[in-house]
User: What shape does this take?
Amino acid sequence: MAGELVLLDFWPSPFGMRSRIALAEKGIPYEYREEDLRNKSDLLLQMNPVHKKIPVLIHNGKPVCESVIQVQYIDEVWHDKAPLIPSDPYQRAVARFWVDFIDKKIYELGSKIWKTKGEEQANAKKEFIECLKLLEGELGDKTYFGGESLGYVDVALVPFYSWFYAYEKCGDFSIEAECPKMIAWVKRCMQKESVAKSLPDQEKVYEFILQLKKVFGIE
Amino acid sequence: MGDDEEVKVFGMWASPYSRRVELALKLKGIPYEYIEEDLSNKSALLIQHNPVHQKIPVLVHNGKSIPESLVILEYIDETWRNNPILLSQDPYDRAMARFWAKFIDEKILSTTRKVSFTTGKEQEHAIEEVTEQLKLLENEVKGKAYFGGEGIGYVDIVANFLVFWFGNLQEALGINIFSQHKFPFIFEWIQKQLKIDMVDECRIPKDKHLTYIQTRLAAFKSASK
Assistant: This one.
């Protein structure tokens, strides 16, 4: 059923990490292809002509674009292994709501933290922490957002952990100090091989951000 | 559906996001109580049911709140399994449907907001951008009666904004992005949509809508001075 599976990705992309984790959780072999985003491959442009972005999951030659759509696709095709999305319609809706929330808030606010300074950065940091606190509320006393095992929300959120060090250095704050429950959850996730192997080293991501800041002329 | 089922929709008559939820419920024949929200004075109940975003639409089913229109549509389809089935069972077809729904919301509707609230060069650029995005959508419905293929489905419901809302908006703005000449396939799809009773029942009343848009634009312009 696996057929030919290729993931077009870029190592620091938290969106790409989501698909890596989902595939690893289910033990599905695939070919990982690193894209140079300054020189996108013909295959990427052909497989995602609308957005021209990674990640792209290519299954038997057919592309699935957008990380949240990929994770759902992976869960539906390989539904008998390590299910990520609940089967109850209301629980599914709750999970989808929080993934939508993560998509609307975390990446954009995180980007503002490393790209801006002064008041704009201060506001972004404040809102970022507020969002993490809302997510902590949703997690509650559960081991994972998915309950006893990794779920859709865990897979969607945990990749951003690889950027936390960069956000903290650029924003001069401690995420653990503000959101200890979130970091405790992260540490539980990182004990899973599927997560640990899918996330790059935080220092490496920070170096990458510093490079980007140079390129964009941001101090 | 049993007598103990309670379905409520918190919505707003001019919102395409709200209308798509009503359309899905009507297509499935699910009775619901509709609560009109005044967005300038949101009710305590709305805030209680959607504390995170405090936005419409919200579906409340037997006391359980579900916000975000795309999340609501999938919930409706999964809870009430009668026809029309909105999303295919095939994982790849589902992925494609979700892709186009996301594209409509994150690109077309987002760029349309830019068209409404900018002027001059910025507006011109936004108009060009949304025209290109609509061309991609046009390509998707080319040669098909519905976006989903055989019958009205998820993407058709998400694209419902094209049936009434978009035309009213461009008339109020005095621009001409969308026409039969430029988008013959979407236009043909709209004609088919209009033949469906439930789609017509979700019609946004034109004159009321034009006045509403003009009032909002005027308020926005004076606020930005």
